[in-house]
Amino acid sequence: MATLLGDAEPEPVLVLGAGASGIVELSEPVQLGHKVALHDIEQGGVIVKFGETIGRASRRIQRGSWVHLHNVTSEFDERSQTLDVHTGAVTDTKYE
């Protein structure tokens, strides 16, 4: 996984960092601070951000794809497993 340092369109991006370097071709737009898959991730595969496991792939994620709420199940909040892709708001649990 890599975290983007700026917004990017579907284009080749340079990956730098510990354990990863090279070019990955983005398959869709990805915004600053969001994750992109550096390799194919099978359903159930671990999702790591900044060295911490944050969830599991809820479906297969292809190299170069945006990794976010639409294809990751959180390991932090078991009360809700469906979140709005853009706002992060829960869609299946009402919090009061």
Mind sketching the topology for me?
Layout lengths: L1 E2 L8 E4 L6 E4 L9 E2 L9 E4 L2 E6 L8 E2 L4 E3 L22
Antiparallel strand pairs: 1-4, 2-3, 4-7, 5-6, 6-8
Instruction: Note poorly predicted spans.
Output: none
Overall residue-averaged pLDDT value: 84
CATH topology: Archaeosine Trna-guanine Transglycosylase, Chain: A, domain 4
The outline comes out as: globular
Portion in beta strands? 25-35%
Number of domains: 1
Please state the structural category.
mainly beta
Question: Brief description of this entry?
Answer:
The chain has 96 residues and is mainly β.
Task: Describe the protein in words.
It is a single chain. With 96 residues, the chain is mostly beta strands. It has one domain (2-74): Archaeosine Trna-guanine Transglycosylase, Chain: A, domain 4. Helices cover 0% and strands 28% of the residues. The protein has strands spanning 2-3, 12-15, 22-25, 35-36, 46-49, 52-57, 66-67, 72-74. The strands form three sheets. The chain has a three-stranded antiparallel β-sheet with strand order 1-4-7, with no helix packed on it. Strands 5-6-8 form a three-stranded antiparallel β-sheet, with no helix packed on it. A hairpin with a 2-residue loop joins β5 (46-49) and β6. It is globular and about 40 Å long. 16% of the residues are buried.
